[in-house]
Design goal:
It is a single chain. It is built from six helices and five strands, in the order αβαβαβαββαα. Helix 4 (86-99) packs across helix 5. The termini are far apart. A five-stranded antiparallel sheet has the order 2-3-1-4-5. The chain is elongated, with a radius of gyration of 29 Å. It has 176 residues and is of the alpha+beta class.
Amino acid sequence: MARPDKAAAVAELTDKFRNSNAAVLTEYRGLTVAQLKTLRRSLGENAQYAVVKNTLTKIAANEAGITLDDQLFAGPTAVAFVTGDPVESAKGLRDFAKENPNLVIKGGVLDGKALSADEIKKLADLESREVLLSKLAGAFKAKQSQAASVFQALPSKLVRTVDALRAKQAEQGGAE
């Protein structure tokens, strides 16, 4: 039978996996406590960075319905549980790893789908959700402006065509 403290830790990790949009597993070997504190700050308010026990984390992930590769649980592991924008947290991890090569991104999960370290780096290269939404809104606005121009051009073209026909009729009628 599992010890109560381990059962509680598994339950807490399971809840974190279920309640987060994404989770990124990292190896933190060689980082100081001060560096870990800086990393936690760089992830923002929508992410929690926790050092975890590999066996308990693997059990919790399985209980949450997430299948992760066993290689992700080799060596000391910490998990960034992201409840907000996963791109922002992925950028924070990537930027911190550039400055501190001891932080190694192993892999993770996004909306229940397992991600490799390369996929997390690609996620970090995306623009933030707000920027993407503003670009989408700008594209919609541009298409609406183009449609309005087309709809406005049709009546004015019709008026010019009718005026040209009247003028032509007046010339032909005046000539005869």
